[in-house]
Design goal:
The protein is an alpha/beta fold. The protein has twelve helices and 16 strands. The chain folds into two domains: 81 residues, no CATH class; 216 residues, Rossmann fold, CATH 3.40.50. The structure holds S-adenosyl-L-homocysteine.
């Protein structure tokens, strides 16, 4: 363990500290990649007893609505054979489980593919999906049919880079060691200009964030959809117009902590840049629907009716169902914070649920 580093998850902190001691400050994106790879590899972070709760873990209604949305699109496309259900970062496999159940009611039972790197979560997913096929990335996904791809809270876990205006010039945001702590510092050397050659109008301290890793994932996914047909549904918190400022955050035990406090022991995320992801899809001539707000999207696809049906079947669960519905759709809960965006092959039907989108 390099001098002075105290962390409750020594592996990630050790690797990062060791690299900084050898090379000097490292780019923020490298820091985030190492921290999250160790974080997800070491534990199942989901649920009340973990660090954060995701929509599919709140209620079965979430996955069911996603499943109905997919089945509707598949039916209107003429029920093509050899479709593949692909989920990126499927967590515990809960969303896929609930979605598959509602898709099957419409005769839609595609093969299940999970893109997942965490051995802990793979084991968890296998409990619900013993017949799934696992992939480390999308390069070896099947090529023989359309892909129905779901990414719920996946893109926010991918590393971001930041550029900061310092002494009148752009610098890359780096992570250094200050004795026992990690700290963000601007690079000594000027960075290649991220803002089209000018710092004018950007005061010192301005941060521009972007995620080359997300851009690469989105490009590869879009290429597959353009070639094979199908759809990609992205649900995440994020922004729909370019902006400035850091959105990097860390959560541990359901509480915000500093992103630099305990790499590998907290969930590091950044807001998803829907604007850029949509542009990537458009350059591949794919159709983009949304982003729409999660609450409106779920409501327009019938989550209120589903909640009423579940309540009628289990009246004792009425309060639990009501509370879950509120968490998923309430404007001050996940309803407005989370955005839903669909990317669809140009010869596929227009997806439902986006009449409220921007
Ligand atoms: N979609 C799930 C889990 C979200 S947490 C849900 O909604 O409950 C993020 C998920 O993405 C985890 O399954 C994590 O292991 C996975 N993940 C993070 N980075 C990844 C990467 N680079 N490649 C593949 N999976 C990744």
């Amino acid at each position: 363990m390099p001098d002075g580093i105290q962390a409750d998850h020594p592996t990630a902190a050790h690797i990062i500290a060791d690299r900084i001691d050898r090379e000097g400050p490292i780019p923020l994106g490298d820091y985030m990649a190492i921290a999250n790879a160790h974080y997800y590899a070491s534990k199942d972070p989901l649920g009340e007893e973990g660090d954060f709760v995701t929509a599919p873990e709140i209620s079965q209604m979430f996955g069911e609505i996603v499943g109905i949305w997919l089945a509707d699109l598949w039916l209107r496309k003429g029920s093509p054979d050899h479709c593949h259900y692909v989920e990126l970062g499927p967590g515990r496999g809960t969303l896929a489980h609930d979605a598959q159940r509602s898709m099957a009611k419409f005769g839609c039972s595609p093969a299940v593919h999970f893109v997942e790197t965490s051995p802990v979560l793979k084991a968890r997913q296998a409990q619900l999906h013993p017949d799934a096929t696992w992939h480390d990335d999308i390069s070896d996904l099947p090529e023989d049919g359309p892909l129905l791809i779901i990414a719920n809270e996946f893109f926010d876990a991918l590393p971001v880079e930041q550029f900061v205006v310092s002494s009148g010039g752009w610098r890359r945001q780096m992570v250094a060691r200050d004795r026992s702590k990690f700290v963000a510092v601007p690079s000594v050397d000027p960075a290649e200009n991220p803002a089209g050659g000018t710092t004018s109008g950007f005061p010192d301290g301005t941060i521009l964030e972007h995620s080359p890793v997300s851009v690469e994932w989105a490009g590869n996914l879009a290429n597959r959809l353009a070639k094979q047909g199908g759809t990609l549904l992205i649900i995440d918190y994020g922004y729909t117009r370019p902006g400035t400022g850091s959105t990097l955050q860390a959560i541990k035990d359901h509480m915000p902590v500093s992103p630099f406090d305990c790499p590998g022991a907290s969930d590091l995320t950044a807001h998803v840049d829907f604007h850029t992801l949509a542009n990537i899809a458009r350059t591949r001539l794919l159709a983009v629907s949304g982003p729409a707000q999660q609450g409106q999207w779920l409501k327009s696809l019938g989550i209120d009716q589903r909640a009423a049906a579940l309540t009628a079947a289990s009246p004792k669960q009425a309060e639990t169902i009501r509370a879950a519905l509120h968490r998923l759709t309430g404007p001050e809960e996940m309803g407005c914070l989370f955005q839903v965006m669909a990317v669809t092959a140009i010869d596929w039907p227009e997806p439902e649920g986006f009449s409220y989108g921007e």
